[in-house]
Structures are given as structure tokens and as C-alpha cells.
Amino acid sequence: MSKKVGILVGSLRKDSFTKFIAKEAAKLFPGGIDIEFVEIGHLPFYNQDFEDPATAPESHTAFRQQIEGLDGFIFATPEYNRSYTPALKNALDIASRPYGFSKWNGKPYAVLSVSPGAIGGFGANHHLRQVLMFLNMNPVQQPEAYIGNVTELIDDKGKLNSKTVTFLQTVVDALVAKL
Ligand SMILES: Cc1cc2nc3c(=O)[nH]c(=O)nc-3n(C[C@H](O)[C@H](O)[C@H](O)COP(=O)(O)O)c2cc1C
């Protein structure tokens, strides 16, 4: 049966560099693996009151079902104040609940942190990994992907430099090996 990989992008910005890098990574999967970009920007903030099915927003229920149907993930995030973004945290929290029914449990993932800055979103990457560890997910440990100085990696025609593409391929391959 073919595998499905979900890509969650922490930036909601239209011209997001992180989304750009995530789309480049999406092109590098082998045939037979379906790639799905998972929208997270429309999700209301998680509220524990919503665990009563009578009050759960439809979008939360649909999101949980979508995550349940996916076999692995790329989490691509910018760095916000040395952490990852609230939109992504909200998405993780929603599908982690109700308690005991997390949709993330055991699934493989790779993290891509992306920044115009030199240290490539290291803080975001590691905060995110800490949470995913608690969610009992299965990480691609190596290679670690800190995509720094991102504006310098894209030429004026919008093409990503070939060294970065080659590097992203190693990340994708490591995730595919875990599916
Ligand atoms: C609230 C906020 C906090 C930020 N904090 C950091 C930071 O800690 N480290 C960093 O490298 N860049 C930081 N930036 C700059 C982002 O890396 C930059 O805006 C980037 O383009 C956002 O990613 P995107 O292009 O995918 O939307 C911050 C930006 C915002 C809006």
C-alpha cells in the first residue's frame, strides 16, 4: 500500500521562505509516496473544553482525521523568538488529544528549520524536537536540517541552489527509510 507523507508548515505567510523550502523538499520524494500539504492556519486555538465532542470544532475533528491517515511527516518551521511557531504548536496540541488518542504516536518525521539568519532556526528546531519526542514520534536524527541564510540560497529566478537541493534529498531519503 502506498505511503502518505504530510507536510506541515509553521509559517502562515503567503511568501514564506519556509513554505518555499518545504515545497522543494516535496519534489524529492520517490514515486509511490503521496505528499499532502496539511493546512493549519484555519484551526481555532486548542481549548481543553473542546474535548467534549459536543463542543469540538469541526475543523479540529477533520484535522485529527487527516493526521490519522498520514504515515509520516515533515515539520517545516521558521524560528520565532528562538522557538517554533504558535500555529504549529496549536496543530500539534490538537491532534495529540483527547488523552490516549494522539494521532502522532509512533510516526516518523523530519524537521526542517528555515531562517534568513545564520544559525538556521536552531532554537526552533530543538524546541520542536523536544515536543515531538514527548509525543512519542520517530525522529530522523540525522541529518539535522538547519536551513540558514535562506535568502542567499534562492536565485533571482526563484531557483534553489543545487547544493541545498542535494542536502534536502538526504533528509527526504532518511525519512522515506523510516516509513
Ligand atoms: C515574531 C517573530 C520572531 C522572530 N524571531 C526570529 C528568531 O528568533 N530567529 C530567527 O532567525 N529569525 C526570527 N524571525 C525572523 C524570521 O526568521 C523571518 O521573518 C522569516 O522570514 C520567517 O519565516 P517565513 O519566511 O517562512 O515566514 C522572527 C520573525 C518574527 C515575525
Give the helix level as a range of percent. Answer: 25-40%
Residue-averaged pLDDT, rounded?
Answer: 97
The counted number of beta strands is: 6
Number of helices: 5
Main sheet specs: 6 strands, parallel
- Specify the structural class: alpha/beta
Give the number of domains.
1
- CATH architecture type: 3-Layer(aba) Sandwich
Question: Order of helices and strands, N to C?
Answer: EHEHEHEHEEH
* Low-pLDDT ranges: none
CATH class: Alpha Beta
Name the CATH superfamily classification. Answer: Flavodoxin domain
* Amount of beta strand: 15-25%
Specify the overall morphology. Answer: globular
* Heterogens: flavin mononucleotide
Query: What would the CATH topology be?
Result: Rossmann fold
Distance N terminus to C terminus? 11 Å
Work out the radius of gyration. Answer: 16 Å
What does the model show?
The protein has 179 residues and is of the alpha/beta class. The protein has one domain: Rossmann fold. It contains 5 helices and 6 strands. It has helices at residues 17-26, 58-68, 86-96, 122-134, 162-176; strands at residues 3-9, 33-38, 72-78, 108-114, 138-139, 145-147. Strands 1, 2, 3, 4, 5 and 6 form a 6-stranded parallel beta sheet that branches. α2 (58-68) crosses α3 (86-96). It starts with a strand and ends with a helix.
